[in-house]
Specification:
Number of strands: 8
Distance between the termini: 33 Å
Number of helices: 6
Strand order of the largest sheet: 3-4-6-5
Helix content: 40-55%
Largest sheet: 4 strands, antiparallel
Structural class: alpha+beta
Strand content: 15-25%
Length: 174
């Protein structure tokens, strides 16, 4: 869990990045979405999606939690959009607290309050979830087996039984 105190970081442009002092549903939703569809690069974090309104929702959450503005731009030659949040400090924070400590973070997630678990799952399903209409199922498709196994346990907290299956990729490096 994220209980370490953090102080705002003054950027070179005079804008402050606010780092949460404790976890919250909004923060957990951002982290779920980040683990599903986000990338942390040296100077920015990015989310790519075909749903512009979904990216607007996460743009607003990031502004609310971290105090930094993101921008949404269309991707060339695709129907997708990119939410880009330019912040060296936010990128470093996510790498340090989530990416590099993913196993520890996921292990502690089951002890989080139920509202935070629900928000994390919402973010993850926003990124990688879909509804299979013919089979009347909700699916979550990811390449990270560890996250998928943790999701099974988290869903049990809500009384939801789930199954896990693997599919071999038809193409490598897609």
């Amino acid at each position: 869990q994220l209980k370490k105190k953090a102080v705002p970081a003054n950027t070179s442009w005079g804008k402050f990045v606010i780092f949460p002092q404790k976890s919250s549903p909004a923060l957990m939703q951002i982290i779920g979405y980040f683990l599903g569809d986000g990338t942390a690069q040296p100077r920015t974090i990015r989310f790519k999606d075909m749903d512009r309104n979904l990216l607007k929702e996460y743009q607003s959450l990031i502004k609310q939690i971290f105090g930094v503005e993101g921008r949404i731009v269309p991707q060339n030659d695709t129907r997708a959009y990119l939410l880009e949040v330019n912040s060296v400090y936010l990128s470093k924070w996510l790498k340090k607290n989530i990416v590099l400590r993913k196993t520890e973070f996921l292990g502690a997630l089951g002890r989080a309050p139920i509202k935070e678990i629900a928000a994390f799952l919402r973010g993850l399903f926003d990124a990688e979830g879909c509804v299979a209409m013919k089979s009347k199922q909700i699916n979550l498709r990811m390449t990270d087996e560890k996250i998928m196994r943790i999701v099974q346990f988290l869903l049990l907290r809500f009384g939801i039984l789930s199954s896990f299956s693997e599919t071999k990729r038809k193409k490598s490096k897609w």
